[in-house]
């Protein structure tokens, strides 16, 4: 059975794309068939996997979603890129922002991505969706088709307000669109273990949420090497096999598999 995981937080720059990429490749390393979906018009996941000019890619998530809106057969096999690290990718580019605007007037606008995912689910063990930093229509689509949502939280600022808003959106989606949606967990990212501030934030997240939600035991340390992979076109396992963030993403992968 395929598990669909949306990586979401409307706060920008918290490690969503880095997590989607390295969780995806980590799951593939364990022998799973993995599809990554870039759900952000910035195409950061697409770029991070080495496709430096996403706007030149012709068939992307926007193409597939517009085909679904027009009730034509989506050109899935043309869109899927097979990456050398053993994951498949449905890329995204700037066209996704125009698509998101068109989606607003479409019938069943919240479940377009679900229609797409339903047609390809049987080919994969995991589908990981990298969401954009907003709670707009595409993020709602991702939540509406996901089995779980993984929430990266940067341990360097007070995340509580943003998290409350995200939880409200998740509850709304659970009530109206997807009763099966669960929170996979909150993942603390960019944890600078040297500072008390990072420790305080981590503790605050645990104190506030751990009785209602899973907070991953694994935390992702702040790492310059992790920051560099977005321009390297490879996962952290390739780029920095012995690094501490690499080890953390490996442990996270195991936690996600165990949690299934
Ligand atoms: P956006 O909201 O813009 O989509 P995001 O939530 O997807 O951002 P990333 O792009 O994964 O976040 O990360 C934001 C920045 O922080 C990037 O430059 C990335 O390389 C860097 N980064 C990610 N993880 C770490 C880490 N563990 N240590 C240091 N830097 C990191
Ligand atoms: Mg991103």
What's the helix and strand layout?
Elements (H helix, E strand, L loop, with lengths): L2 E5 L8 H14 L4 E6 L4 H5 L12 H9 L6 H4 L1 E2 L4 E4 L4 H9 L8 H9 L5 E6 L5 H9 L2 E7 L5 H17 L5 E8 L6 H14 L14 H9 L3 H4 L4 H16 L1
Parallel strand pairs: 1-5, 1-6, 2-4, 2-5, 6-7
Antiparallel strand pairs: 3-4
Helix pairs in contact: 1-12, 3-5, 3-6, 6-7
Description:
The chain has one domain (3-258): Rossmann fold. It is built from twelve helices and seven strands. It has helices spanning 16-29, 44-48, 61-69, 76-79, 95-103, 112-120, 137-145, 160-176, 196-209, 224-232, 236-239, 244-259; strands spanning 3-7, 34-39, 81-82, 87-90, 126-131, 148-154, 182-189. It has a seven-stranded mixed β-sheet with strand order 3-4-2-5-1-6-7, sandwiched between helices. The longest helix is centred in the middle third of the chain and has 17 residues, at 160-176. The N and C termini lie close together (11 Å). Bound molecules: adenosine-5'-triphosphate and magnesium ion. Magnesium ion (MG) is lined by residues 16-17, 40, 44, 130.
Report how far apart the termini are: 11 Å
CATH architecture: 3-Layer(aba) Sandwich
Rounded to an integer in angstroms, the radius of gyration calculated over CA atoms is 17 Å
> What is the number of helical segments per DSSP (H or I, 4+ residues)?
12
Strand order of the largest sheet: 3-4-2-5-1-6-7
Bound molecules: adenosine-5'-triphosphate, magnesium ion
CATH class descriptor name: Alpha Beta
For the largest beta-sheet, the strand count, sense and barrel status come to: 7 strands, mixed
Low-confidence stretches: none
The figure for the number of domains is 1
- Written as H for each helix and E for each strand, in order along the chain, the element string is EHEHHHEEHHEHEHEHHHH
Class derived from helix and strand content:
alpha/beta
CATH-assigned homologous superfamily = P-loop containing nucleotide triphosphate hydrolases
Output mean pLDDT.
94
Molecular shape: globular
**Strand content range:** 5-15%
Q: How many β-strand runs?
A: 7
Enter the CATH topology name.
Answer: Rossmann fold
Helix percentage range: 40-55%
């Amino acid at each position: 059975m395929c598990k669909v995981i949306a990586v979401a937080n409307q706060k920008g720059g918290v490690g969503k794309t880095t997590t989607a990429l390295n969780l995806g490749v980590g799951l593939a390393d364990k022998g799973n068939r993995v599809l990554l979906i870039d759900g952000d018009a910035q195409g950061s996941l697409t770029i991070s996997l080495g496709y430096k000019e996403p706007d030149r890619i012709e068939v992307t998530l926007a193409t597939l979603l517009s085909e679904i809106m027009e009730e034509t057969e989506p050109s899935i096999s043309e869109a899927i890129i097979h990456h050398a690290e053993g994951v498949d990718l449905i890329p995204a580019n700037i066209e996704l922002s125009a698509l998101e605007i068109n989606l607003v007037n479409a019938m069943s606008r919240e479940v377009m991505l679900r229609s797409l995912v339903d047609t390809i689910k049987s080919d994969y063990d995991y589908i990981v969706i990298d969401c954009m930093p907003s709670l707009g229509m595409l993020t709602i689509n991702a939540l509406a088709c996901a089995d779980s949502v993984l929430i990266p939280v940067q341990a360097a600022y007070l995340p509580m307000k943003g998290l409350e808003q995200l939880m409200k959106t998740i509850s709304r989606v659970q009530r109206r669109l997807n009763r099966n949606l669960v929170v996979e967990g909150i993942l603390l990212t960019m944890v600078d273990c040297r500072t008390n501030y990072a420790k305080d934030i981590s503790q605050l997240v645990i104190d506030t949420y751990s009785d209602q939600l899973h907070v991953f035991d694994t935390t992702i340390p702040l790492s310059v090497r992790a920051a560099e992979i977005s321009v390297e076109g490879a996962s952290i396992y390739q780029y920095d096999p012995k690094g501490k963030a690499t080890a953390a993403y490996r442990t996270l992968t195991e936690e996600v598999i165990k949690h299934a």
